[in-house]
Design brief:
This protein is an alpha/beta fold. Among the domains are: 144 residues, no CATH class; 53 residues; 80 residues, no CATH class. 49% of the residues lie in helices and 11% in strands. The protein is built from 11 helices and 7 strands. Strands 5-4-3-6-7 form a 5-stranded mixed beta sheet. It has a two-stranded antiparallel sheet with strand order 1-2. It is extended, with a radius of gyration of 31 Å. 15% of the residues are buried.
Length: 419
């Protein structure tokens, strides 16, 4: 009998291991061959704040939570109205698109050929406009500075030499001008064109510039712009609401191998502003403590353990990121259809925020709407998670998603009370 029980336990353990492996395979298959964008799930529209093209999720919420029926219907109707208005605006803009008036016009007049118009009067004209583009080309700014001296006078002890000073440049002594270096930096950091590809692009334009030279220009310019970067850092950290996250990338700092590193991203919510911080690729708590120093205000992050210390810091209001919670359930949806319920709750919250933004209501009204509408939805979602967690294994994708959400829940729900 004991042996049978042992075999049953082993059988159950093997089934759980097999289930986890199958879930992992499905997840990897989706990463390789399926849709990975959270905004492009088949069930949803492509706009994150308008994810209710199908009524299935909304109806499911209404049936199971009658006390939320009127609330859900109100959010749904406003969201539908907003979507339709946005769709109409998009159609109108496409139909009425015109080339902006501030774009330079170069006019060509086409008169009838082989026709004597001297005895005619012009009664009108038709104008056709096409958008054109000049090809990029290098040119050399040649600055000539004449050198003057005073005419020789009798018994003169010395001669006065006069010459205009050079104009200040960002890289004194370098052959590269500001227009070239600014284009290199814009293409590298805004349009993600590598320096090697830029070097190849310069060759047909008549300039053979090595990648190493371009790299030196970029580094030298970054050093000159460092005070501007610090001004941006200080401005963002003076805001009363910031968002912080870490992003991964490969670091090649030793021959023949790459390692995983992190760059910290800090964003101000109330005014446009982002800065990046790199500290040897480290993601340690020590780095974020040194970076934020004595920051006071709302701090929105994911569930990474390094941020937990801010729960105890005076003057800091930790907030959670619903997008990270949503991503966990979205990943669980690959193997567990039941995760759709969590996505329905979250998407309903997104729709409410989209409605409030479109209506342009006051901060006080936003606070009231969140407390009266968003908070009950969060309570229903929390209740659903508690019930569901008891019926799934902790190591399953859904179990992990719920566990992550529970760990973030105080920070997630805090915005409903704090406004």
């Amino acid at each position: 009998m004991e042996k049978i029980q042992q075999l049953e336990r082993e059988n159950m353990l093997l089934k759980e291991q097999l289930q986890r492996k199958n879930e992992r395979i499905l997840y990897l298959e989706r990463q390789l061959f399926g849709r990975r964008s959270e905004k492009k799930l088949p069930q949803y529209n492509q706009a994150q704040l308008t994810l209710f093209d199908t009524e299935q999720g909304m109806q499911h919420l209404e049936i199971e939570t009658p006390e939320l029926t009127s609330l859900v219907e109100d959010i749904k109707q406003k969201g539908e109205k907003r979507r339709n208005a946005k769709k109409e605006l998009s159609i109108t803009e496409k139909r009425s698109y015109k080339i902006p008036a501030d774009i330079e016009r170069r006019e060509t007049i086409l008169n009838p050929q082989n026709v004597d118009t001297s005895g005619m009067i012009k009664i009108g004209e038709d104008v056709t406009e096409r958008l054109m583009l000049d090809q990029a080309k290098f040119w050399v700014e040649r600055t000539v500075r004449p050198v003057y001296k005073m005419k020789q006078e009798k018994d003169a002890v010395s001669t006065t030499i006069v010459q205009a000073p050079l104009k200040p440049t960002i890289l004194p002594g370098s052959m590269v001008g500001e227009s070239v270096i600014s284009q290199i930096i814009i293409d590298k950091f805004l349009y993600h064109i590598p320096e090697s590809r830029q070097a190849k692009r310069f060759k047909p334009l008549g300039m053979n510039i090595t990648t190493s030279r371009i790299n030196r220009w970029v580094h030298a310019t970054a050093d000159k712009l460092y005070p501007l970067y610090m001004a941006q850092v200080n401005r963002i950290l003076s805001a009363d609401y910031i968002q912080v996250d870490e992003t991964t990338h490969s670091i090649i700092d030793r021959p023949g191998s790459a390692r995983k590193g992190y760059t910290w991203v800090v964003r101000s919510v109330k005014f446009p502003g982002v800065f990046f911080h790199y500290d040897k690729g480290s993601r340690s708590q020590e780095v974020i403590l040194k970076l934020l120093k004595d920051y006071k205000g709302a701090l929105q992050t994911d569930g990474y353990a390094a941020y937990s210390i801010y729960e105890e810091k005076q003057g800091v209001l930790p907030l959670g990121c619903m997008a990270h919670v949503r991503r966990k359930f979205e990943n669980a949806l690959v193997t567990t259809p039941e995760a759709q319920k969590a996505l329905d709750y979250i998407d309903l919250l997104y729709m409410l925020e989209g409605n409030l933004k479109a209506e342009g209501v006051s901060y006080e009204q936003i606070r009231k709407e969140r407390e009266q509408k968003a908070y009950p939805i969060l309570q229903q979602m929390e209740s659903w998670m508690k019930q569901t967690y008891n019926s799934c294994t902790p190591k399953s994708p859904l179990g992990k998603a719920i566990s992550y959400a529970f760990g973030m829940w105080p920070r997630i729900s805090r915005y409903c009370k704090e406004g």
